[in-house]
Amino acid sequence: MADPSINDRAVEGDMARTVEQVRDAVRRHSARFERAIPLIASENLLSPYAKELLVSDFHSRYAEGLPGERYYEGNEQVDEVETLCLDLARRLFRCSFADVRPISGTVANLAVLKALAEPGDLVGTCRLADGAHISSASFGAFGLRSVKPVYYAWDSERMTIDVPKTKEILRSVRPKLCLFGLSLFLFPLPISELSSTLEEVGARGWYDGAHVLGLIAGGEFQDPLHEGCVVLSASTHKTLPGPQHGILLGNTDDPEVVKRLTSAAFPGVTSNHHLHTMAALAVSLAEHLAFGRAYARQVIANAKALGAALHARGFDVLGEPLGFTASHTLAVRVTREGGGEEVARKLAAAGIITNKNLLPGDTSPKHPGGIRLGTPEVTRVGMGEKEMVRIAELMDDLLHRGRDPAAVAQDAAAFKLGYTGLRYCFGAGEAAYRYYDLVGHPPA
Ligand SMILES: *Cc1c(COP(=O)(O)O)cnc(C)c1O
User: Fold this and answer.
1) How confident is the model at residue 2 (pLDDT cuts 50, 70, 90)?
2) pTM above threshold 0.85
3) Is the CB of 42 under 6 A from ligand 1?
4) Mind listing the pLDDT tens digit for each residue in 283-294?
5) For the chain, domain boundaries
6) Ligand 1: which of 100, 106, 233 to mutate, judged by most atoms within 8 Å of the beta carbon?
7) Nearest-CA residue for atom 1 of ligand 1
8) By the 8 A CB rule, do 329 and 212 touch?
9) Are 67 and 87 in contact (CB under 8 A)?
């Protein structure tokens, strides 16, 4: 038999190289994004003070339960931070209930489904092709909870729910819960217009604000908890530039609803609630109270400017009669340019990071007719309307003028390297794509 210590040393050397390979890939990734133009609508950048907490000792701990009633000892500072986090959330969203234990938007959605629906219930939602998230698909959270979707009627021209037709649907089908939320979220949804019908049929309103949470908090989109929704579930890392985490917010004085949401969050869908990201969320919420209004305003102004600049260069940007968007997102039909898949791939080769996206009327989920663009990240590094025109020019060069992707990538990098410092946070100016080398040397 071989000497196990020799064997271990060989494995150790091998694994040291593997660890270094992982570190190097992450470093190369950061360098790549620093030189790219990231336009994924669901992505954002964390502030330095929030990011710092991700490698804190909070990462090593458990704190099941709520502040003051934990299942483990040693949680005094965790309680202090979580209490602050909850206070900041209720203040930012002007609401009575918050739970910061869901670890992502999908997990927050599962909590709502567990709390407010039973298997077999009918739940209203938009179709995937009209922009809904996979949470409301049979292969997603809806399927896991065994609830059945009832689809709202869609107005493709105005890219929102068709109110008169949807009222009819709600009256005839009478769902128990009505979900309002999208991943292709261009315009506010008509919740106020539908709230009397919800009441009439006895349905609760539920808003999935994963995409637009930072715009809602900035007071620049809609205010679902004051328009008739009982609960708002969300991710905290899309337009809200926080850590990858989830949140539940509510405006209800019904103690039964509060109790059901609380026990759905824990022990329903979490055990550990990722304390390091919860602490980072407290920082991001505080920073949003300080800087969120100006940030949200600029994110939307940039999206509108990018829409107009693309339209002026012959792109088929949806929502034209309404100014293309009222959010951080644009939808562009790219049939003429080669379809969503090919266009997204070409753009990435030229340093412009987007995603292919289903659009209303698409019949095959495998061949999306469009791309989705978002302005949160480019806004966060200090770009304004004039920079949006430059991005549209680069896209036009590549997709309409046949310019070589490598040449466009060079231009994109030269342009982007002027915008690598964070804005709208404490420690503004800090490198947005910095790799923190905590150890200071590679493993050996
Ligand atoms: C992104 C998204 C989610 C899922 O959020 P995760 O944090 O990625 O789990 C849920 N709902 C909508 C509408 C989304 O866009």
Assistant:
1) low
2) yes
3) yes
4) 999 999 999 999
5) 50-285, 291-416
6) 106
7) 210
8) no
9) no
